[in-house]
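Recap from last week: sequence in, structure out.
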Amino acid sequence: MIDAVTTNVMGTVVDVINPVGSHDVVLVCEHASPFIPANFNNLGLDPEAARSHIAWDPGALDTAKAMSQSLDAVLVAGCVSRLVYDCNRPPEAASAIPAVSEVYEIPGNQCLSDEARRARTEIFYRPFEKAVRQALSERKSAPVLVTVHSFTPIFHGEKRDVEIGILHDDDARLADALLNVACGYEVRRNEPYGPADGVTHTLKRQGMRRDLLNVMIEVRSDLISTPENCQAMGETLTRWIGQALETVQSPRHGGRAS
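Predicted C-alpha cells:
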C-alpha cells in the first residue's frame, strides 16, 4: 500500500488521502495547494498573486475531499503550487513551469536552465506521478480516474457562464455518461478548457494509456467558495458519478462490467 504522504528534502509534495478507500474511483487533485517552498521566495511574486487562482485551484481540494468521503475513494492531491510545477503537465511542456500565467509574469520561472527544470521535475512531479500510478494499481477491480479542478469566474476580464465543465480527450465514455445525468447547473463539454489547452495530461498518461474510464471535472470557483459549498458540490458530483458509472459500466451499453 502507498504511504499516506510522500515526502523528500523539499517537504511534502503529494498527499494520499483515504489510501485504503474501497471504491474503484481514484480521485486526483493536481492543483490542490498554493504552497511555494520558502527557498523559492514566492517565485518573485507579491503575496496576493502568490495566493491567487494562478497558483492553485481554490475549493478543488475540499470538494475532492467531500467526494472521497462520500465515495470512500482514495484521493491523490498535490501539495505544492502549480507555479512551482504543474502536475497536470508533462515535463517537456513549457507550461509545466510557467514563465507567465494569465497576466502575471513569474520572475522565479524566467530563463531556467535545463538542469533546474529537471530538478523540479524529479522533486515535485515524479512523486506525484508515482502516487497516482500506485493508487490506480491498488484498486481491486478496473479503476476509474476522476480529476477535480476549479476555474475562476472571470478570465481576462470576461465573465464565464459555464458553471461545471466535463472534460475529456479522445476517450469520452465517462464524460458522455456524466453529461447525460448532470443537471441543475450550466454544464458543458470541454469548457472552459479542452484538450487543445493541454489540460488532459493526467487523463492521457494515467488513464487512457491503460484504457481506464477517465474524466476531468472543472467547477467554477465561486460555487465552491465555502466549506459548506464544497461539501454540497462534492455530494452532487458523487451522485452524478455513481449514476454515470451504472450506465457506462453496464455490458448492455457496451462498457465494461463492474
